[in-house]
Amino acid sequence: MTASARKKIKWKYYVNYAVIGALTVLFGILSAVGGLDQGTQFLLEKIGISIILAVSLSLVVGFLGELSLGHAGFMCVGAYLGGKLSVVLVRAMGNGIPALLLSVLVGGIVAALCGVVIGLPALRLKGDYLAIVTLAFGEIVKSIFQNTNQETFGGALGMATPRYDRNTLFILEFVLVLVTLAVVQNLIRSRHGRAITAIRDSEIAARATGINVTKYKLLVFTVSAFFAGIAGVLYSYGNNMVQSAKFGYNYSIEILVMVVLGGMGSINGSIIAAALITFLNLKLATVLTGNLAVLQNMVYALVLILIVIYNNAPALKGFREKYNLRRLVDKLFRHRKDPAFVREDEASWERIPTKIEMDELLSVDLRPGEYPEGEVPEKPDKTTDGKESR
What we know:
- By secondary structure, the chain is an all-alpha fold.
- The protein has a single domain (37-312), classed as Orthogonal Bundle (ABC transporter involved in vitamin B12 uptake, BtuC).
- 66% of the residues lie in helices and 1% in strands.
- The protein is built from 14 helices and 2 strands, in the order H-H-H-H-H-E-H-H-H-H-E-H-H-H-H-H.
- It has helices at 3-32, 38-64, 71-93, 97-119, 127-146, 166-189, 191-201, 203-208, 213-239, 249-262, 267-287, 296-312, 317-322, 325-333; strands at residues 159-160, 241-242.
- Strands 1-2 form a two-stranded antiparallel ribbon.
- The relative contact order is 0.14.
């Protein structure tokens, strides 16, 4: 890949950071001056949490190629332990930014440790078997917190968490969205990311080339669980309450749908799908009320089915290619060349033919000192002193 092509790819990632950073500043200002109503702010908070969850799970499912159904379990661990620590910190330090940051960090670290614990025995499992193990982990974690006594983690009724300033929590959430994107995208673009995708393509070939498969699988599970734990802590603060029933397998499936709907291994797709699904869930819950509440899951499922059909139906392939969003943007703003065929000076050049044809084969037996018929080696050049050059 040429230097100009690499610059274009870096520019694309910088645009992601710039857009989300600008939205963070804009939403922060609007929230501080009262420009956002409570419902809109709550919706944006939920979208931010969903983005963190979808991007972190995409690291496991999309880039490593392993099916994990326990993401809600890691989120549950972070929510409970981060929330419990915040109760202690608020009593000692007050409900300021230090207590908030420390509890978020600890919740992520504890969830990451759980990722290591799950990753170690699950290294030899693949496909459905790994999915069952991670699903069982999520259900076990939910049951443990649900059956604790009320003084420890609240039991089935849930555990109350301290109240923090909503504007501070809102800004911190979108800052953590930026951190999640920066860590995941830079990991994927590094040599470690190339090793991870090599494991996804062929674990046997990756081992043959010297890649430490165990190391990279543990790395992916740990990083993914860390950000899921952070999302869990933010979730608990946003609701001022943690209930284990919220972290069932249905929530893990919902996060997985975000990743699959956005495209396997697509960070931007995961972001868009997370925002879309979260918006649908919350809006359908407010629109379909009363007797129509039973239709919420049906409408939600119907919308998802239509989106999947649009993305995968062969009959709509021409329509998708014609109205592809990226292609339309490229036509509007600039003419992009194929990075694999662009020179440093941006000069146009033709593709090199790759088709090789062989008319006939020739078998020749040669003894030492003999040459094929019609092929005589050239005489060596002589130097100025008359000696043959070698």
